[in-house]
């Protein structure tokens, strides 16, 4: 029973994901096909859509439940999650901008003469812009309905949701595989699961110790 619980998977693990510092689930696409599936199947009327202000970034759906009362902090973290899972990670860019909009502003229907590629969307109306999101995140152990999972996302989200030590993670020269082994040995967690949440590309990590409160 315990082993089954430890290996339990959630629907959002088909994508990349993170809980915001306010406890709101944020789900990010893995590629164009995944972005399209995420938005078509999981973007609801109550949700927020976020995307880095560059092509080749993850679409992020911020899943707002009835009991959630997110502030601008969550929307900013959703924008940051998109930036972390973008082509900027391997491009040597220090920071990028992003935007968030309400779900009714997101469309697959182009205006006449426009073409919308797979995994891309038309945004109608005003974008809420967020600037200078650093290409640095963090990974730590969280418990989702009692199941241990390593979560990667903005550092403030990881700091709030993870009780123990965590790792700051930024683009670097060490292979992702080596970093996954290190995180797994220090935090516990399945290597495949950690591999699935970290960004694509080389990286470096720095452990953050925390005193228990």
Characterization of the model:
- There is one protein chain.
- The chain has 213 residues and is α+β, with helices and mostly antiparallel strands.
- The protein has one domain (1-213).
- 26% of the residues lie in helices and 31% in strands.
- The protein has six helices and twelve strands.
- The protein has helices at 2-6, 32-42, 72-84, 155-161, 176-187, 191-197, and strands at 16-19, 25-28, 48-52, 60-63, 95-102, 106-107, 122-123, 128-134, 137-144, 147-153, 166-174, 203-208.
- The protein has a six-stranded antiparallel beta sheet with strand order 1-2-4-3-5-8, sandwiched between helices.
- Strand 3 (48-52) and strand 4 form a beta hairpin.
- The mean pLDDT is 93.
């Amino acid at each position: 029973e315990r082993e089954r619980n430890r290996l339990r998977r959630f629907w959002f693990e088909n994508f990349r994901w993170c809980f915001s510092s306010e406890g709101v689930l944020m789900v990010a696409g893995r590629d164009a096909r995944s972005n399209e599936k995420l938005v078509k199947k999981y973007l609801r009327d109550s949700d927020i859509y976020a995307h880095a202000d560059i092509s080749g970034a993850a679409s992020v759906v911020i899943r707002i439940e009835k009991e959630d009362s997110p502030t601008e902090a969550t929307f900013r973290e959703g924008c940051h999650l998109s930036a972390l899972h973008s082509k900027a990670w391997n491009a040597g860019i220090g920071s990028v901008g992003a935007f968030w909009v309400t779900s009714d502003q997101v469309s697959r229907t182009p205006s006449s003469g426009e073409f919308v590629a797979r995994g891309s969307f038309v945004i109608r109306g005003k974008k809420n812009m967020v600037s200078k999101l650093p290409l640095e995140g963090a990974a730590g152990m969280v418990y989702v309905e009692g199941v241990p999972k390593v979560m990667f996302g903005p550092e403030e989200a990881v700091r709030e949701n993870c009780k123990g030590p965590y790792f700051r993670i930024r683009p670097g020269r060490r292979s992702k595989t080596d970093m996954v082994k290190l995180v797994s040995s220090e935090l516990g967690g399945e290597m495949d699961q950690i591999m699935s949440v970290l960004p694509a590309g080389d990286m470096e990590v720095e452990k953050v110790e925390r005193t228990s409160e």
